[in-house]
Specification:
mainly alpha, Tetracycline Repressor, domain 2, 210 residues
Length: 210
């Protein structure tokens, strides 16, 4: 007896992937606009143009959708960041380049600023995510500043741990100012340039980001 294998439903899989991507795009925008707690899955499904059960087929809960949104952002930024490192950029140069790219994606900046503020609550589903994210970036910055200190490129008296936290604080503050300038896009703060200047203030000119 022979068994007939149904044709591979490539079209259905492709459509499902496209729908998933559209859901993630809409959720990313909505979470950035109103925050995680205020956003609803029904609003996301309405923006995508699918039913609420249809959305739940892809993401069974709002927490699962949030996790997927954050993972997607990290995958995109992580790939570009690693490519810069592989191309020879130092940690701080690659970090500035991430900021440059984000300036062209205001929705990403809004998402991060909104969720990171909300996630200070331990009950927020993204609380651990942002804790881990801050630990990772601060640890990388401390390592970078320590390397420059050991190479004699860091200004005397600058503590690498303090410098790392100041740099992250500047990045977060610049994002808020960038979003506040939405009504005057031509005069928006240049986040990348301001970050370069902050780093340059702590190191010798030869170590400043390109």
């Amino acid at each position: 007896m022979t068994t007939t294998v149904p044709p591979h439903p490539r079209g259905g899989y492709a459509k499902g992937r496209a729908t998933r991507e559209e859901i993630l795009d809409s959720a990313m925008q909505l979470f950035g606009e109103v925050g995680y707690h205020t956003a609803s899955l029904r609003e996301v499904s309405a923006r995508v143009g699918i039913s609420h059960p249809g959305l739940l087929h892809h993401f069974p809960s709002k927490a699962a959708l949030l996790e997927a949104v954050l993972v997607r952002r990290d995958e995109i930024d992580g790939a570009a960041y690693q490519a810069d490192l592989d191309a020879g950029y130092e940690f701080f140069d690659a970090l500035v380049r991430i900021v440059e790219r984000n300036a062209a994606r205001p929705g990403i900046v809004e998402l991060f600023a909104t969720l990171s503020a909300e996630a200070t609550s331990p009950q927020h589903p993204a609380h651990r995510y942002f804790q881990d994210r801050y630990r990772l970036i601060i640890a990388g910055a401390v390592e970078g500043f320590e390397r420059w200190r050991d190479e004699g490129r860091l200004h005397e008296g600058v503590d690498p741990a303090t410098a790392a936290r100041l740099m992250v604080a500047v990045m977060d503050g610049l994002q808020v100012q960038f979003l506040m300038d939405v009504d005057t896009p031509d005069s928006r703060v240049d986040m990348a340039d301001a970050l370069r200047q902050q780093i340059t203030a702590m190191v010798s000119p030869s170590a400043a980001p390109r």
